[in-house]
Design a protein that fits this description.
Blueprint: E1 2-5, H1 15-27, E2 33-36, E3 53-59, E4 66-71, H2 86-97, E5 104-110, H3 122-141, H4 145-154
Helix pairs in contact: 1-3
Length: 157
């Protein structure tokens, strides 16, 4: 499953939704694509019976063009608000189901302008293309997706 987090009304925050829309026609049979403005506790059920989960989000602090990493459950302050981090969602999964969530990865795409009403910036669009290449390579790598994605962490960008 690929979970896109973002708001298309807020400039570069549209990066993740735009990524999954590009993937929709190419990988519809291979992977489920979910999109929402933010993660919420209810999304814990979306993680059930998955072989792996890739969270995608725009980020104004990561290196260009993107940062890809494997992530683990971690309790943080977001679990008390209406929005959660991927780490907190994985932690909630463990609390609810008594077992670890499926292997999870986070793709943070570098964004620059998150103002309401602004379009996607040119620099963010270039970063989106680089991220798309990486995601396509991951999905095309082989059928055993988790080892493939873990190997990808070891290769330089």
């Amino acid at each position: 499953m690929i979970f896109a987090i973002g708001n298309e009304s807020r400039g570069d925050d549209a990066l993740a939704p735009l990524l999954v829309r590009q993937l929709q026609t190419e990988y519809i049979a291979q992977v489920e694509l979910i999109e929402d403005y933010q993660l919420q506790v209810e999304h814990v059920t979306d993680l059930l019976d998955r072989s792996a989960v890739l969270f995608v989000d725009a980020d104004m602090s990561c290196a260009e063009p993107f940062h890809f990493s494997e992530i683990a459950a971690e309790r943080d302050g977001s679990y008390t608000s209406h929005a959660m981090t991927p780490f907190a969602l994985l932690h909630t999964y463990r609390q609810v189901y008594g077992t670890d969530a499926p292997p999870a990865f986070l793709l943070r795409i570098r964004g620059y302008d998150f103002e309401l009403g602004n379009p996607l910036s040119g620099k963010a669009a270039a970063n989106l293309e680089a991220a798309m290449e990486r995601v396509r390579a991951l999905l095309d790598a082989d059928r055993n997706i988790v080892p493939s994605w873990q190997r990808s962490l070891e290769s330089p960008r």
